[in-house]
Amino acid sequence: MSEDPRRSLPGVDRLARELEEEGCGAEWACLRAARAAIDEARQRIARDEPVGDVRADAAGRCAELTRPRPGRVVNGTGVVLHTNLGRAPLAPAAAAAVAETAAGYSDVELDLASGGRGKRQAAVCQMLCALSGAEDALVVNNNAAAVLLALAALARGREVIVSRGELVEIGGSFRVPEILAQAGVTLAEVGTTNRTHLRDYTAAIGTRTGALLKVHRSNFEQRGFVTEVGLAELVALGTERGVPVIDDLGSGTLLDLRAEGLPEDSFVPGRVAAGADLVCFSGDKLLGGPQAGLVLGRHEIVERLRTSPLARALRADKLDLAALDATLRLLLEGRREEIPVVRMLLEPVEKVAERARALAGALSAAIGDRLSVEVEPVVGAVGGGSLPGFELPSAAVVLDGARHGADALAAALRAAPLPVLVRTREDRVWIDARTLLADEPPLVVAALQHALSADRSERGA
Asked: What is the CATH classification number for the domain harbouring 173?
Protein backbone atom coordinates (compact mmCIF):
# COMPACT_ATOMS: atom_id res chain seq x y z
CA MET A 1 0.00 0.00 0.00
CA SER A 2 1.49 3.34 -1.06
CA GLU A 3 2.18 6.05 1.48
CA ASP A 4 -0.35 8.88 1.79
CA PRO A 5 1.21 11.79 -0.24
CA ARG A 6 -0.07 14.28 2.34
CA ARG A 7 2.52 12.91 4.77
CA SER A 8 5.27 14.33 2.57
CA LEU A 9 4.01 17.90 2.99
CA PRO A 10 5.97 20.12 5.39
CA GLY A 11 4.43 21.19 8.68
CA VAL A 12 2.93 24.68 8.78
CA ASP A 13 5.11 25.89 11.67
CA ARG A 14 8.31 24.52 10.13
CA LEU A 15 7.62 26.01 6.70
CA ALA A 16 6.65 29.36 8.22
CA ARG A 17 9.83 29.45 10.30
CA GLU A 18 11.98 28.65 7.27
CA LEU A 19 10.30 31.39 5.24
CA GLU A 20 10.94 33.89 8.01
CA GLU A 21 14.59 32.82 8.32
CA GLU A 22 15.00 33.31 4.58
CA GLY A 23 13.73 36.88 4.89
CA CYS A 24 10.48 36.31 2.99
CA GLY A 25 8.48 38.39 5.45
CA ALA A 26 7.33 38.97 8.99
CA GLU A 27 6.12 36.11 11.19
CA TRP A 28 2.42 36.77 10.61
CA ALA A 29 2.79 36.77 6.82
CA CYS A 30 4.96 33.66 6.75
CA LEU A 31 2.50 31.76 8.92
CA ARG A 32 -0.53 32.69 6.81
CA ALA A 33 1.31 31.98 3.57
CA ALA A 34 2.54 28.59 4.77
CA ARG A 35 -0.91 27.57 5.95
CA ALA A 36 -2.54 28.64 2.66
CA ALA A 37 0.07 26.90 0.50
CA ILE A 38 -0.21 23.63 2.43
CA ASP A 39 -4.01 23.77 2.35
CA GLU A 40 -3.86 24.24 -1.42
CA ALA A 41 -1.49 21.29 -1.74
CA ARG A 42 -3.83 19.07 0.27
CA GLN A 43 -6.75 20.04 -1.96
CA ARG A 44 -4.71 19.21 -5.06
CA ILE A 45 -3.84 15.81 -3.65
CA ALA A 46 -7.53 15.15 -2.93
CA ARG A 47 -8.32 16.00 -6.57
CA ASP A 48 -5.43 13.79 -7.76
CA GLU A 49 -3.68 16.82 -9.28
CA PRO A 50 0.06 17.64 -9.31
CA VAL A 51 1.08 19.43 -6.12
CA GLY A 52 3.94 21.50 -7.44
CA ASP A 53 6.53 23.34 -5.34
CA VAL A 54 4.85 24.07 -1.99
CA ARG A 55 7.75 26.16 -0.72
CA ALA A 56 7.76 28.36 -3.83
CA ASP A 57 3.99 28.74 -3.57
CA ALA A 58 4.27 29.79 0.07
CA ALA A 59 7.07 32.26 -0.72
CA GLY A 60 4.98 33.82 -3.47
CA ARG A 61 1.97 34.12 -1.19
CA CYS A 62 4.15 35.71 1.47
CA ALA A 63 5.48 38.27 -1.01
CA GLU A 64 1.93 39.14 -2.00
CA LEU A 65 0.84 39.52 1.63
CA THR A 66 3.72 41.85 2.45
CA ARG A 67 3.39 44.00 -0.67
CA PRO A 68 2.09 47.49 0.18
CA ARG A 69 -1.51 47.94 -0.91
CA PRO A 70 -2.53 49.93 -2.73
CA GLY A 71 0.82 50.04 -4.50
CA ARG A 72 1.95 52.19 -7.38
CA VAL A 73 1.47 50.93 -10.94
CA VAL A 74 2.19 52.44 -14.34
CA ASN A 75 -0.89 53.11 -16.46
CA GLY A 76 -0.15 52.30 -20.08
CA THR A 77 -3.77 51.52 -20.94
CA GLY A 78 -4.73 54.91 -22.37
CA VAL A 79 -7.69 55.14 -19.98
CA VAL A 80 -7.12 58.44 -18.16
CA LEU A 81 -9.51 57.87 -15.26
CA HIS A 82 -9.09 54.15 -14.75
CA THR A 83 -11.29 53.22 -11.78
CA ASN A 84 -9.34 50.04 -11.05
CA LEU A 85 -6.13 52.09 -10.94
CA GLY A 86 -7.43 54.76 -8.56
CA ARG A 87 -8.74 57.24 -11.13
CA ALA A 88 -6.97 60.61 -11.04
CA PRO A 89 -3.29 60.72 -10.05
CA LEU A 90 -2.71 63.73 -7.82
CA ALA A 91 -0.72 66.76 -8.87
CA PRO A 92 2.72 66.87 -7.21
CA ALA A 93 1.57 69.83 -5.13
CA ALA A 94 -1.45 67.89 -3.91
CA ALA A 95 0.62 64.80 -3.09
CA ALA A 96 3.07 66.97 -1.14
CA ALA A 97 0.20 68.58 0.76
CA VAL A 98 -1.12 65.14 1.76
CA ALA A 99 2.31 64.03 2.95
CA GLU A 100 2.84 67.17 5.03
CA THR A 101 -0.63 66.96 6.58
CA ALA A 102 -0.27 63.26 7.32
CA ALA A 103 3.14 63.59 8.95
CA GLY A 104 2.03 65.80 11.82
CA TYR A 105 -0.81 67.64 13.45
CA SER A 106 -2.84 70.16 11.45
CA ASP A 107 -5.30 73.00 11.93
CA VAL A 108 -8.07 71.00 10.30
CA GLU A 109 -10.66 72.25 12.82
CA LEU A 110 -8.77 75.03 14.59
CA ASP A 111 -9.09 78.79 14.22
CA LEU A 112 -5.50 79.90 14.71
CA ALA A 113 -6.51 83.52 15.35
CA SER A 114 -8.81 82.78 18.29
CA GLY A 115 -7.44 79.42 19.36
CA GLY A 116 -10.97 78.04 19.29
CA ARG A 117 -12.71 75.49 17.12
CA GLY A 118 -12.65 76.30 13.42
CA LYS A 119 -14.62 75.17 10.37
CA ARG A 120 -12.96 72.20 8.73
CA GLN A 121 -14.05 73.04 5.17
CA ALA A 122 -13.99 76.84 5.18
CA ALA A 123 -11.01 77.24 2.83
CA VAL A 124 -11.94 74.64 0.22
CA CYS A 125 -15.57 75.79 0.15
CA GLN A 126 -14.53 79.36 -0.54
CA MET A 127 -12.33 78.18 -3.41
CA LEU A 128 -15.08 75.97 -4.82
CA CYS A 129 -17.47 78.92 -4.79
CA ALA A 130 -14.89 81.20 -6.42
CA LEU A 131 -14.30 78.68 -9.20
CA SER A 132 -17.95 77.77 -9.80
CA GLY A 133 -20.02 80.84 -8.97
CA ALA A 134 -22.05 78.87 -6.42
CA GLU A 135 -23.33 80.46 -3.24
CA ASP A 136 -22.10 77.66 -1.00
CA ALA A 137 -20.28 74.33 -1.10
CA LEU A 138 -19.84 71.15 0.89
CA VAL A 139 -17.37 68.27 0.64
CA VAL A 140 -18.13 64.64 1.52
CA ASN A 141 -16.22 61.43 0.86
CA ASN A 142 -17.49 60.61 -2.65
CA ASN A 143 -20.20 61.55 -5.12
CA ALA A 144 -22.54 58.70 -4.16
CA ALA A 145 -22.38 60.05 -0.60
CA ALA A 146 -23.14 63.54 -1.89
CA VAL A 147 -26.27 62.35 -3.67
CA LEU A 148 -27.32 60.21 -0.70
CA LEU A 149 -26.94 63.18 1.65
CA ALA A 150 -28.80 65.54 -0.68
CA LEU A 151 -31.73 63.18 -1.05
CA ALA A 152 -31.94 62.39 2.66
CA ALA A 153 -31.68 66.04 3.73
CA LEU A 154 -34.19 67.39 1.22
CA ALA A 155 -36.69 64.61 0.57
CA ARG A 156 -36.61 61.86 3.23
CA GLY A 157 -40.10 60.34 3.49
CA ARG A 158 -41.19 61.93 0.23
CA GLU A 159 -41.01 61.23 -3.51
CA VAL A 160 -38.14 62.07 -5.84
CA ILE A 161 -38.90 62.21 -9.56
CA VAL A 162 -36.35 60.69 -11.95
CA SER A 163 -36.47 59.91 -15.66
CA ARG A 164 -36.44 56.18 -16.43
CA GLY A 165 -33.65 56.86 -18.89
CA GLU A 166 -31.47 58.10 -16.02
CA LEU A 167 -31.88 55.18 -13.61
CA VAL A 168 -28.32 54.09 -14.21
CA GLU A 169 -26.03 51.56 -12.62
CA ILE A 170 -22.54 52.82 -11.82
CA GLY A 171 -19.38 50.84 -11.05
CA GLY A 172 -19.53 48.15 -8.40
CA SER A 173 -23.20 47.40 -9.20
CA PHE A 174 -24.47 50.47 -7.35
CA ARG A 175 -27.77 51.59 -8.80
CA VAL A 176 -29.55 54.93 -8.55
CA PRO A 177 -32.81 53.37 -7.25
CA GLU A 178 -30.85 51.68 -4.44
CA ILE A 179 -29.25 54.98 -3.41
CA LEU A 180 -32.71 56.56 -3.31
CA ALA A 181 -33.98 53.73 -1.13
CA GLN A 182 -31.08 54.12 1.30
CA ALA A 183 -31.84 57.84 1.53
CA GLY A 184 -35.38 57.05 2.66
CA VAL A 185 -37.13 58.50 -0.38
CA THR A 186 -39.64 56.98 -2.77
CA LEU A 187 -38.68 56.76 -6.42
CA ALA A 188 -41.20 58.20 -8.87
CA GLU A 189 -40.19 57.12 -12.39
CA VAL A 190 -41.30 59.20 -15.35
CA GLY A 191 -41.01 58.82 -19.12
CA THR A 192 -39.56 55.80 -20.86
CA THR A 193 -36.09 54.36 -21.25
CA ASN A 194 -35.36 56.41 -24.36
CA ARG A 195 -37.75 59.37 -24.22
CA THR A 196 -38.76 61.62 -21.34
CA HIS A 197 -40.56 64.93 -21.84
CA LEU A 198 -41.12 67.94 -19.58
CA ARG A 199 -44.82 67.07 -19.43
CA ASP A 200 -43.89 63.77 -17.76
CA TYR A 201 -42.26 65.60 -14.87
CA THR A 202 -45.10 68.12 -14.69
CA ALA A 203 -47.74 65.42 -14.44
CA ALA A 204 -45.82 63.57 -11.71
CA ILE A 205 -45.36 66.52 -9.32
CA GLY A 206 -47.71 66.30 -6.36
CA THR A 207 -48.00 67.09 -2.68
CA ARG A 208 -45.48 64.36 -1.78
CA THR A 209 -42.81 65.49 -4.23
CA GLY A 210 -39.57 66.30 -2.42
CA ALA A 211 -37.19 66.90 -5.31
CA LEU A 212 -36.51 66.52 -9.01
CA LEU A 213 -33.32 64.54 -9.65
CA LYS A 214 -31.37 64.72 -12.89
CA VAL A 215 -28.73 62.00 -13.26
CA HIS A 216 -26.00 62.26 -15.83
CA ARG A 217 -25.57 59.01 -17.78
CA SER A 218 -21.90 59.02 -16.99
CA ASN A 219 -20.91 55.55 -18.19
CA PHE A 220 -22.98 55.14 -21.37
CA GLU A 221 -24.79 57.19 -23.97
CA GLN A 222 -28.08 56.93 -25.82
CA ARG A 223 -28.39 57.55 -29.55
CA GLY A 224 -31.19 57.47 -32.05
CA PHE A 225 -34.82 58.05 -31.11
CA VAL A 226 -34.15 59.69 -27.74
CA THR A 227 -35.37 62.74 -25.87
CA GLU A 228 -34.45 64.08 -22.46
CA VAL A 229 -35.26 67.23 -20.51
CA GLY A 230 -32.39 69.66 -20.14
CA LEU A 231 -31.32 71.01 -16.78
CA ALA A 232 -32.51 74.54 -17.49
CA GLU A 233 -36.02 73.29 -18.34
CA LEU A 234 -36.11 71.18 -15.22
CA VAL A 235 -34.99 74.13 -13.08
CA ALA A 236 -37.71 76.34 -14.55
CA LEU A 237 -40.31 73.72 -13.67
CA GLY A 238 -38.91 73.25 -10.18
CA THR A 239 -38.93 77.00 -9.57
CA GLU A 240 -42.51 77.28 -10.79
CA ARG A 241 -43.71 74.43 -8.58
CA GLY A 242 -41.48 75.10 -5.57
CA VAL A 243 -39.54 71.82 -5.86
CA PRO A 244 -35.73 71.72 -5.48
CA VAL A 245 -33.67 70.34 -8.37
CA ILE A 246 -30.65 68.12 -7.70
CA ASP A 247 -28.17 67.65 -10.53
CA ASP A 248 -26.10 64.48 -10.12
CA LEU A 249 -23.41 65.32 -12.64
CA GLY A 250 -21.12 62.50 -11.55
CA SER A 251 -18.00 63.85 -13.25
CA GLY A 252 -17.38 67.51 -13.93
CA THR A 253 -14.65 70.07 -14.39
CA LEU A 254 -14.30 73.59 -13.01
CA LEU A 255 -12.28 74.58 -16.07
CA ASP A 256 -13.99 75.79 -19.22
CA LEU A 257 -12.66 73.20 -21.65
CA ARG A 258 -15.46 73.42 -24.17
CA ALA A 259 -13.14 75.03 -26.70
CA GLU A 260 -10.89 71.96 -26.36
CA GLY A 261 -13.77 69.68 -27.32
CA LEU A 262 -15.12 68.60 -23.94
CA PRO A 263 -18.93 68.52 -23.86
CA GLU A 264 -20.78 71.46 -22.38
CA ASP A 265 -22.50 69.39 -19.72
CA SER A 266 -19.15 68.60 -18.07
CA PHE A 267 -18.60 72.29 -17.18
CA VAL A 268 -19.75 72.61 -13.56
CA PRO A 269 -20.08 76.45 -13.47
CA GLY A 270 -22.51 76.13 -16.40
CA ARG A 271 -24.65 73.70 -14.39
CA VAL A 272 -24.60 76.09 -11.43
CA ALA A 273 -25.53 79.01 -13.69
CA ALA A 274 -28.46 76.99 -15.05
CA GLY A 275 -29.98 77.33 -11.59
CA ALA A 276 -29.82 73.85 -10.08
CA ASP A 277 -30.35 74.01 -6.34
CA LEU A 278 -27.56 71.48 -5.92
CA VAL A 279 -24.88 70.17 -8.28
CA CYS A 280 -23.02 67.03 -7.14
CA PHE A 281 -19.84 65.70 -8.76
CA SER A 282 -16.65 63.78 -8.01
CA GLY A 283 -13.32 65.23 -6.99
CA ASP A 284 -11.22 62.41 -8.45
CA LYS A 285 -12.53 62.42 -11.99
CA LEU A 286 -12.35 65.36 -14.40
CA LEU A 287 -11.42 67.72 -11.57
CA GLY A 288 -8.17 65.79 -11.16
CA GLY A 289 -8.13 65.80 -7.36
CA PRO A 290 -8.71 63.29 -4.54
CA GLN A 291 -11.73 61.09 -4.00
CA ALA A 292 -14.46 63.41 -2.78
CA GLY A 293 -18.09 64.29 -3.34
CA LEU A 294 -18.44 67.99 -4.10
CA VAL A 295 -21.78 69.71 -3.57
CA LEU A 296 -22.38 73.20 -4.94
CA GLY A 297 -25.55 75.24 -4.78
CA ARG A 298 -27.80 77.68 -3.00
CA HIS A 299 -26.70 78.57 0.52
CA GLU A 300 -29.94 77.66 2.29
CA ILE A 301 -30.07 74.28 0.53
CA VAL A 302 -26.41 73.43 1.16
CA GLU A 303 -26.88 74.42 4.80
CA ARG A 304 -29.61 71.82 5.16
CA LEU A 305 -27.12 69.20 4.05
CA ARG A 306 -24.39 70.56 6.31
CA THR A 307 -26.59 70.29 9.41
CA SER A 308 -27.87 66.79 8.59
CA PRO A 309 -26.72 64.03 11.00
CA LEU A 310 -25.50 62.13 7.91
CA ALA A 311 -23.02 64.89 7.06
CA ARG A 312 -20.61 63.88 9.83
CA ALA A 313 -20.73 60.22 8.83
CA LEU A 314 -19.93 61.12 5.23
CA ARG A 315 -17.45 63.94 5.72
CA ALA A 316 -14.05 64.07 4.07
CA ASP A 317 -10.95 63.56 6.20
CA LYS A 318 -7.95 65.86 6.57
CA LEU A 319 -5.91 64.12 3.85
CA ASP A 320 -8.66 64.51 1.24
CA LEU A 321 -9.09 68.14 2.23
CA ALA A 322 -5.35 68.78 1.94
CA ALA A 323 -5.25 67.28 -1.56
CA LEU A 324 -8.40 69.11 -2.62
CA ASP A 325 -7.10 72.41 -1.24
CA ALA A 326 -3.88 72.10 -3.24
CA THR A 327 -5.71 71.06 -6.44
CA LEU A 328 -8.14 73.98 -6.24
CA ARG A 329 -5.28 76.42 -5.64
CA LEU A 330 -3.62 75.24 -8.84
CA LEU A 331 -6.83 75.98 -10.74
CA LEU A 332 -7.21 79.41 -9.15
CA GLU A 333 -3.58 80.28 -9.88
CA GLY A 334 -3.86 79.29 -13.54
CA ARG A 335 -1.52 76.30 -13.16
CA ARG A 336 -3.86 73.74 -14.65
CA GLU A 337 -1.07 72.01 -16.60
CA GLU A 338 0.33 70.75 -13.28
CA ILE A 339 -2.76 68.57 -12.76
CA PRO A 340 -2.02 65.24 -14.49
CA VAL A 341 -5.59 64.56 -15.65
CA VAL A 342 -5.85 67.98 -17.27
CA ARG A 343 -2.50 67.47 -19.00
CA MET A 344 -3.54 64.04 -20.28
CA LEU A 345 -6.85 65.31 -21.61
CA LEU A 346 -5.44 68.36 -23.37
CA GLU A 347 -2.01 67.25 -24.56
CA PRO A 348 -1.82 67.50 -28.38
CA VAL A 349 -1.60 64.10 -30.05
CA GLU A 350 1.60 65.21 -31.81
CA LYS A 351 3.33 65.62 -28.45
CA VAL A 352 2.01 62.26 -27.27
CA ALA A 353 3.39 60.64 -30.42
CA GLU A 354 6.76 62.29 -29.82
CA ARG A 355 6.91 60.78 -26.32
CA ALA A 356 5.84 57.40 -27.70
CA ARG A 357 8.69 57.48 -30.24
CA ALA A 358 11.17 58.33 -27.48
CA LEU A 359 9.92 55.41 -25.38
CA ALA A 360 10.08 53.08 -28.38
CA GLY A 361 13.69 54.06 -28.93
CA ALA A 362 14.58 53.42 -25.30
CA LEU A 363 12.84 50.03 -25.35
CA SER A 364 14.57 48.96 -28.56
CA ALA A 365 17.94 49.93 -27.13
CA ALA A 366 17.26 47.94 -23.95
CA ILE A 367 15.90 44.69 -25.42
CA GLY A 368 17.56 44.51 -28.81
CA ASP A 369 15.77 42.33 -31.33
CA ARG A 370 13.89 40.16 -28.84
CA LEU A 371 10.66 41.98 -29.74
CA SER A 372 9.45 44.14 -32.58
CA VAL A 373 8.89 47.71 -31.31
CA GLU A 374 6.77 50.17 -33.29
CA VAL A 375 4.65 53.28 -32.70
CA GLU A 376 1.07 53.34 -33.93
CA PRO A 377 -1.90 55.70 -33.57
CA VAL A 378 -4.62 54.61 -31.12
CA VAL A 379 -7.74 56.00 -29.51
CA GLY A 380 -7.85 56.34 -25.73
CA ALA A 381 -10.73 56.92 -23.36
CA VAL A 382 -11.45 59.27 -20.48
CA GLY A 383 -12.86 56.44 -18.35
CA GLY A 384 -14.08 56.54 -14.76
CA GLY A 385 -17.66 57.05 -15.84
CA SER A 386 -16.71 60.33 -17.54
CA LEU A 387 -17.60 61.54 -21.03
CA PRO A 388 -18.92 58.33 -22.62
CA GLY A 389 -18.24 58.29 -26.34
CA PHE A 390 -15.57 60.99 -26.08
CA GLU A 391 -12.43 59.72 -27.80
CA LEU A 392 -8.84 60.78 -27.21
CA PRO A 393 -6.50 60.38 -30.20
CA SER A 394 -3.23 59.04 -28.91
CA ALA A 395 -0.10 57.08 -29.78
CA ALA A 396 1.08 53.75 -28.43
CA VAL A 397 4.27 51.75 -28.40
CA VAL A 398 3.37 48.34 -29.85
CA LEU A 399 5.33 45.22 -28.90
CA ASP A 400 5.07 42.25 -31.24
CA GLY A 401 6.65 38.81 -31.34
CA ALA A 402 6.42 37.80 -27.68
CA ARG A 403 7.51 34.14 -27.45
CA HIS A 404 4.49 33.08 -25.39
CA GLY A 405 2.00 35.60 -26.79
CA ALA A 406 0.81 39.08 -25.88
CA ASP A 407 -1.31 38.02 -22.90
CA ALA A 408 1.64 36.25 -21.29
CA LEU A 409 3.85 39.31 -21.81
CA ALA A 410 1.15 41.56 -20.34
CA ALA A 411 0.98 39.28 -17.29
CA ALA A 412 4.75 39.43 -16.93
CA LEU A 413 4.64 43.24 -17.06
CA ARG A 414 2.05 43.19 -14.28
CA ALA A 415 4.40 40.96 -12.26
CA ALA A 416 7.32 43.40 -12.51
CA PRO A 417 8.58 45.05 -9.28
CA LEU A 418 6.72 48.15 -10.42
CA PRO A 419 3.78 46.72 -12.41
CA VAL A 420 2.96 48.15 -15.84
CA LEU A 421 -0.63 47.88 -17.09
CA VAL A 422 -1.09 47.62 -20.85
CA ARG A 423 -3.66 46.55 -23.43
CA THR A 424 -3.44 43.55 -25.72
CA ARG A 425 -4.93 43.35 -29.19
CA GLU A 426 -4.11 41.29 -32.27
CA ASP A 427 -1.65 39.31 -30.10
CA ARG A 428 0.39 42.46 -29.58
CA VAL A 429 1.02 44.59 -26.48
CA TRP A 430 -0.02 48.24 -26.67
CA ILE A 431 1.47 50.83 -24.28
CA ASP A 432 -0.43 54.11 -24.65
CA ALA A 433 1.87 57.08 -24.05
CA ARG A 434 -0.92 59.53 -23.14
CA THR A 435 -1.40 58.07 -19.67
CA LEU A 436 2.28 57.75 -18.79
CA LEU A 437 3.53 60.25 -16.20
CA ALA A 438 6.72 62.21 -16.83
CA ASP A 439 8.99 59.91 -14.80
CA GLU A 440 7.54 56.64 -16.04
CA PRO A 441 9.17 55.81 -19.42
CA PRO A 442 12.33 54.48 -17.68
CA LEU A 443 10.07 52.43 -15.41
CA VAL A 444 8.44 50.86 -18.46
CA VAL A 445 11.86 49.96 -19.82
CA ALA A 446 12.84 48.34 -16.51
CA ALA A 447 9.56 46.42 -16.33
CA LEU A 448 9.98 45.03 -19.85
CA GLN A 449 13.56 43.99 -19.13
CA HIS A 450 12.33 42.22 -15.99
CA ALA A 451 9.50 40.52 -17.89
CA LEU A 452 11.86 39.18 -20.54
CA SER A 453 14.56 38.10 -18.08
CA ALA A 454 11.96 36.18 -16.06
CA ASP A 455 11.21 34.05 -19.11
CA ARG A 456 13.63 31.12 -18.99
CA SER A 457 13.31 30.46 -22.67
CA GLU A 458 14.22 34.07 -23.39
CA ARG A 459 17.23 33.84 -21.11
CA GLY A 460 18.40 30.75 -22.90
CA ALA A 461 17.99 32.25 -26.34
From this structure: 3.40.640.10
CB under 8 A, 24+ apart: contacts of 220-227 = 220/168, 220/388, 221/388, 221/389, 222/165, 222/194, 224/194, 225/194, 225/195, 226/165, 226/194, 226/195, 227/194, 227/195, 227/196, 227/197
CA distance 139 to 153: 15
State the DSSP string of 263-293. Answer: -GGGBHHHHHHTT-SEEEEESSSTT-SSS-E
Residue 289, φ and ψ in degrees, nearest 5: -110, -155
The residue type at 259? A
Query: Is residue 375 in some structural domain?
Result: yes
320-340 mean pLDDT: 97
Alpha carbon of 214 to those of 160, 192, 376: distances in Å?
A: 10, 15, 40
Condensed to tens digits (0 to 9), the pLDDT of residues 373-411 reads 999 999 988 876 666 667 889 999 999 999 999 999 999
- Is 145 among the domain residues? yes
CB 304 within 8 A of CB 210: no
Residues 6+ apart with CB under 8 A from 176: 162, 166, 167, 168, 169, 170, 215, 248
Q: What is the mean pLDDT of residues 260-275?
A: 89
* Interatomic CA distance for residues 348 and 364, integer angstroms: 25
Is residue 4 a part of any domain in this protein? no
Q: What percent of the chain has pLDDT over 70?
A: 95
